[in-house]
Amino acid sequence: MSDIKYLAPGTIEEAVKAMQAAGGKGFVLAGGTDLLVQMRSGAREPQTIVDVKKIPEMTTIEELPGGGFRIGAAVSGAVIGEHKKLVAAFPGVVEAINLIGSKQVQGRASAGGNLCNSSPAADSVPAMVAAGVTVQIAGPNGRREVPVEKFPTAPGRNCLQPGEIVVSLTLPAPAAGSSDAYLRLIPRTEMDIAVVGIGVSLTLKDGTVTAARVGLGAVAPTVLLVEDAAKALVGSKLDDAALEKAAAACRAACKPINDKRGTIEYRTKISGVLLKRAAKIAAQRASGATVGGTH
Amino acid sequence: MTAQVYKWIGTRPKRPDGADKVTGRARFGADFNMPGQLIGRVLRSPHPHAVIKSIDTSAAAALPGVRAVVTAADFPEQENLIVPAGEMQVNLRDVTRTIMAREKVLYEGHPVAAVAAASEAIAKQALALIKVEYALLPHVIDVEEAMKDGAPILHDHIRTDGVQPVPTKPSNIAKRIENLKGDVAKGFAEAEVVIERKYTTAPVHQAYIEPHACLASAAEDGQVSVWTTTQGHFQVRGFCSRLLQIETSQIRVTPSEIGGGFGGKTVVYLEPVAIRLSQKSGKPVKMVMTREEVFRASGPAPGGAMTVKIGAKKDGRIVAADITIALQAGAFPGSPIGPACWCSMACYDVDNIRVVGFDVVSNRPKVAAYRAPGAPISSFAVESTIDILAQELGMDPIDLRLKNAAMKGTKTHYGPVFDRIGLVECLEAAKNSAHYKSPVKPGHARGIAAGFWFNVGADSSAAAHVGEDGTVTVISGNPDIGGSRASLALMAAEELGVDYDKVRAVIADTHSIGFNFVTGGSRVTFATGMAVVNATKDAIKELRVRAAKIWGVDPEGVVWEGGKARPAGHNVGEFEPLTLAQIAAQAGKTGGPINGHAQLNAQGAGPGFGVHIADVRVDAETGHVVIDRYTAVQDVGTAIHPSYVEGQLQGGAVQGIGWALNEEYIYNAKGHLDNAGFLDYRIPVASDLPMIETILVEVPNPHHPYGVRGVGEVPIVPPLATIANAVARACGTRMTSLPISPPRLSAALDAAPKLAAE
Ligand SMILES: Cc1cc2nc3c(=O)[nH]c(=O)nc-3n(C[C@H](O)[C@H](O)[C@H](O)COP(=O)(O)OP(=O)(O)OC[C@H]3O[C@@H](n4cnc5c(N)ncnc54)[C@H](O)[C@@H]3O)c2cc1C
Hints:
The complex is a heterodimer of chains A (295) and B (758). Chain A is of the alpha+beta class and 295 residues long. Chain A has helices at residues 12-21, 35-41, 77-81, 84-89, 91-98, 103-106, 111-117, 124-131, 227-233, 240-253, 264-286; strands spanning 5-7, 26-29, 48-51, 61-63, 69-72, 134-139, 142-147, 152-154, 157-158, 165-171, 178-185, 196-205, 208-217, 224-225. In chain B, a hairpin with a 5-residue loop joins strand 15 and strand 16 (318-330). The structure holds flavin-adenine dinucleotide.
């Protein structure tokens, strides 16, 4: 391994400059739970590492007027899990982030890193898609915003341009009567990669779904926003027929591969199974009942 | 249950290596370093099967910082000769080809060259500069495929052994063995119920947490020192001596603390290479495998394919069994097919048994031992079939096993007649356990299975040295994998009648104690324990001599009791008893140092039996299996240190559960291993498991001074079928193929109603 330059700038501007200067050989270091593993295996060979954990905007959670939140891209899962208001407003997003790795990994791993690593199986992303998260990006040409479902472009790739970094993730204020849930299937109970992951966000009025968003992971090259599934749920009271229709929409959206983690048939089937389960949990949460995920 | 009352045996003091391990002070294989050391790295084959046409190492050798390069040309050719090593039989011709491929590469990851360089980075760069020209050959991974006519042949010289007339054509079936007891045809003619099924299991890795690692230093005068993580440093010495033609007295091997072995560290991979690199470079050479290398190139356990046919009377009496077992040996012959065949029906007293086994080579790394080698595989097939029989007969599965259980006097199908064994006691303990008596929770089901392992004795040496203050060092030569130092110290303390903390058990290198066979076969507490007891007795004999000298009496007039020398009777005279410390303090005046020694070939290892119980729930939509409760019952002879015995039962159960549920080698169409890491090679994590409850049944082994039976291997035998049996009862679908991973179980569940409808 040749020498690696390590920088820990205190501002976004310095970080962007450092990334720009490094050309294609610069990597942002958030928790490092992907990056360091990839460096060890030789999959990534950075010449410059830009540690963003000294930048306040990237390491804090801010409550926005009206009830939304801005989560710094490098905030660790452990910190997110301890933010009571965030947990109350977005239990699905938080449980998705908190599923990443183990206790030790949680102390470091960030939602920003999870998103930027751009794995189709990243756990936090389907939940963020369901929650309607907007990604705040800073770069040589200033700042811009991208809906989270547009951020990943292919396995391991995303829409960041040279010199750009993700600054934070904005969660819009939840509507009254709404909540969310995230479920994933893994062969074990932790320390595993999702075979299928699904985030469901619902708004209910008098038991009827008035708005819905479904994010589906690990079944296609990028995490999907499944609008047909959402449509099937809206207007329903989550009766079996509506749930089955939404499950069918999820199955239809799947473009999975056969690999060591699961077959096409299995992934497709499970996307429907988890849709139904996650929708029920989100609905129960939206109507005030507290329920834990089963996986 | 132990009739004998002991002061130390059966207590749970802290292990002597415990503090060092929890503070990080303990030194494992990769923790040894020497000034001026080089880093050795191995170039591995990217192909599962290919002829090596040429290797050009010139560019690598010319790279600044590279100090030595080796290929197979640096290792002498070996005879086609079988020698014992660990619990396996090995052929040195094949071992040298495992260390370094010669004419052919036989699996992805097969070493083809190695370099020693000033740094890891330079070593890696050098590997990239080695040019190997391959001529690719078709490959075969699966055991049944490898047995077919027309399969790619790995070795032109192999003719199936054990077949008459001797075949003329080469085959991947290296050996056929057969065990026969009674008349199987006659047995089946008497049967009222016959169950026949086909089973497969996936190849699995021992998954020890510490990768292979060693440091070798070859000095100018020919003396070689090796520090390595191993289950048997005497085996490392033996292998290196033969593979490199160096006399054993010139090779001093020091074992490190070991981060797991489970049988996988009874063979050599790096040590001979590191020594050769050190000889060529004149510098110490350190080599550490990556996890990926461990998966691609170190000995896993075989995958297997079995058929089991069992016939019984309606009352449950089994009258015949006909079993075929084929095991993947990997690239070279030598799967544990023998033990797989012998263990298959060892739990049962059945008149008519035939077991046929095949040892089959395929393009995978050569298998190594893994806890009770072969037994979990064949036991999965037999214990699943017996469970089906129990269901068919409407019998309780424990009662069915009790009806057929082997006991003292049972003649096994592979020859020996059992002495005192504890299978019946285990089955009864299982039946009477709180777990088995508890109601099965709604939505859950319960499975049980039994298991057997021979346990091993073999060669051990030990010494007991009395220090000048009367404390004692117990020296032996088996790397401590499961707490054996604590158990050895407990036995010595019991013999001596002194406190446990006055006895220190250490592991000596190959130059500091006599030969000890590997830590394997569950032999250390039994065989080395016996050597320690004998060495302690030898020291006590000397202590009595010294006391006699002090008192001016005949040594026969002195007894050793309660940690003190005492007059044997009033006629000897009235003397105040002498403590160990008092005698030691006067040793200089009474004849010099006081030491005891022993060496032996331990016979009479007590066979071990276990019965496991699992309650599981199946998520019918996802195929996910949740284990709600698990109990391991085992006849452990005498539990010298019950905590470490329980630990063995728990660890074995967990590894078996992994084997049952998720562990498997996944090969792609190119013959490459797709999951060479712990992310996709799924051993169970803590949150997957309930507390593994243990029940220690103690039927003392009559052939050991404290009744010890080996305990380390039996517990991995029952879990595979225990889980499969519970799953079958939970969801009505019997999984005859392992692992029962969610995608496979889900597919089987989805296929089941369709099959029924057809
Ligand atoms: C043991 C273990 C278990 C794991 N389990 C899971 C799991 O269950 N689910 C799961 O989804 N993942 C899992 N992971 C992967 C990893 O932990 C997550 O993806 C995590 O969220 C990454 O966050 P991080 O802060 O550590 O990212 P880092 O490793 O710091 O960064 C990841 C990548 O994103 C880039 N990056 C990071 N932040 C930014 C930014 N602000 N702007 C631009 N680029 C950026 C980095 O350069 C790097 O390429 C696991 C990893 C380990 C080691």
